[in-house]
Every structure is written in structure tokens, then in C-alpha cells.
Amino acid sequence: MMRAVTKYSGLIIAMCLGIGAGLVSAMEGEASRKTRNVPVDIFADQARGPYRTGTFEVLWVNEALDDPSTTAVGDSRKVMVQLWYPASSSVQQDHAPYAISPQLYGESHWVHQLGGVRTRSVLNAPVVEGRERLPVLIYNHGAMHPHFSGTFQTEFLASHGYVVVAIGHPGANEIERFPDGKSYRNDGMTYWAEPPTGERPARRELAEYLWAHGDLSLFIGDIRFVLDRLAALDIDPEWRLRHRLALDRVGSLGWSLGGFLSLQAGRDEPRIKAVANLDGLNLLGLMGPRGVATLGSERPMLLMFADRWTEVSPPYPGVELSADIVERMELRAALVAHYWRMLRRSTADWYYMSIAGVDHAHFSDRTLFETIPEDRMSPRQAHDIINRFTLEFFEKYLRGSTQTPLLDGEEVFAEAGLFKMKGDAK
Questions:
Q1: pLDDT digit string, tens, across residues 28-41
Q2: Domain count for the chain
Q3: Which domain covers residue 72, as residue numbers?
């Protein structure tokens, strides 16, 4: 069961985990973020695969679960789900809006500033012709972001022949109402863990407590529920993707919270065959007795980070550090050390990489909509690197491709450093 967090612990959480920009901004409130003037065709020049893409959004209700994030009795757990998929080559309709249902978010939410933005996918397009079963990818969003905040990647993967299913996890996605007219309010429940009453631990001690006691089970339950629903729909004669899902070839990926959630889901859910963590450096809930950081993974993993979060050394020689900075460096070193321990204990292939010149937001759509520092990588370049590695990883482990020049080191991006280990090498 998720637990409420006091004002004190919430502020400490934000500070002790401040090495992850997405978690800090989540505590500050994402809804009021201001975007720059964005061209309506911002996605038009994104690199794509051979298929046109379709998309649609749907509300799925888990009638078997009384949502523990609300105090209302009998309030079944609801999730917004958006699918992207290869579409028929004959489709000619207009492209879908970036946010299909902006009315589900508060009036001050940043999605309302992007009302004119169009994606490259066609709303409710027919699926691509043929009988080929298509691999399925579960996409998990970052904390306090909607399920479509990785559209740069979900559309790209769908254009290469995947059905990408993005899950909106209530309690972490800022949704305020559902299409059935019901409102949603998170009544103080969270996946953070409350430290023992009266204790005021230092950053490192608090972080270790949160890593061991955080609870991702509600969100993992969402993933299981969605996989169950997909299996039922795959034989439904009324469903547009009937008999087109390769549910024996399922992967999970995500950004920030969605990244480390995917790691744990790969440990807990046997239907998931490979996982990709996109700058989810946190370990919340991953270090308990059944956590993936404690036990290691039995699924192939791609871990992709912004270089500044994995850098342990001071950035400039001779700089005198304050006690506060030293404490942050200790916490950062602990994070990295725990990840390497997880990798050492993992039994499947893994890839660990960092990308120079990118920030946490580069792993989402945010850099397309906001001004970024001039010394940081352009969004298009960052998205190209992220997408190409992610696609090649899933092609290898869900489709059995042997054409993997990036993962094999035959093709190199100067900005990307990659370590890897084969499962049979341990």
C-alpha cells in the first residue's frame, strides 16, 4: 500500500534526489510550466521508419481494483491508454493532435499551450495490411507528465513496426478527470515511503530508506492490467488490432519514473522480455528484498543516462566544495554504485550508456517545447541517438535481429559512451 508523505519528507525527498531534474520539477509542480512558441508541425521532420502510424486513446477501468490512491470507496482504478501502431499505407486523414484529450488536465496545465501542435500519426487509422503479428512495447511516462510526453519515441517505434502502448498512471501523471465524467484526485498517496516518525536523516540515509521502501506495485499492477486487457482484445472481433499483437514479444520502456519502473516490471512481470530505462537514475522501490537492484535482472536491459547524472568526479579541478555539494556527490556516487551492483547480479545481457551534452528533459518531448541552453545538444540530435539505440535494442531482443551495429560498437556516436556485458559472460 502506498503511504502519505509529510511536507518535511517531501521537501527532503526533492533535495536528496535533486540530482534527477525530473524529480525536482515534479515536486515543484509541472502543470504550470511555460512553453515557448511551438510550430504546429514540430514533429514533421522527426526521423521515422517505413510505416505510416495511427493512434487512438481509450479509458480502461480495472473493475477488480479499488484505487488505493483515492479515499473514495468503490472507486475502481482507471488508466488512460494511448496506442501507436503501423497504419495502412492508404491512410490520408489529418494528423492527430499532440494531446488528444487536453480537457482531462487542469486549466493551467502546459498541454493547453500546445493545442495546435500536430503529430505524424492519424487518429483511428486502420492498421497496416497483412497478418503479421506486431511486437508490443509498454511505454511508461515520467513523474508528473502525461502518457504522451514521449511521442517523439512512441511514434518512431510504431513507424518501425511496433505497437506502442502508453499507460497513464494516475497519481503520477497530473490527470484531473476521465472521459467518463469522473474526476480524479490523488488523496495524498504516493510511491514514496515515509521515513520513521521523528527522524531527520541526512540525504544519503533518507535516500537509502526510500530506495528500500518505495512502492511501485500500483503502477506495476497497471502494466499487468493493460497486458491482460490486450490479451482479451486480441481475440475480440470488434477490435481494430485483433490478431495483430505478438504478446509473446513484449518489451517495456520509459523515461525517468517510467524508466526505473520498467526495470522493476521486467523483474516482476514474466510477459516482459526486455526493458529500456531512459534516464531513470532513481532507485525508489528497487532495493527492497524483491527489488531488481537487490536481485539483479533476468531480462536484457538498456540503461541510458544523461552524462551529468552519472559523473562522480567534481566538474572542475581545484574547486573548493561546500558540505552540501559533498553530500550530493556522496548520494550520486551511491546511486551509481548500486546500479553497477545490480548489473553485476543480472543474468541477462545488459547495456549501460551515457550521452554527453543532454539533460534529463532530452529523453522526453520537453526539449521540443521549451528553450534549452545553447551549450546543450539539439533535441533532434538527442532524439536521434536515443531512438536509434532503443530501436536496435528491441529489434535484437524482441525480433531476433543480428544487425546491431550500435550495440556491437561497429557504429559510434561521439557523444555516446557504451558499456555492455553478455549474460553468458558472468
A1: 345 555 666 788 99
A2: 1
A3: 7-425
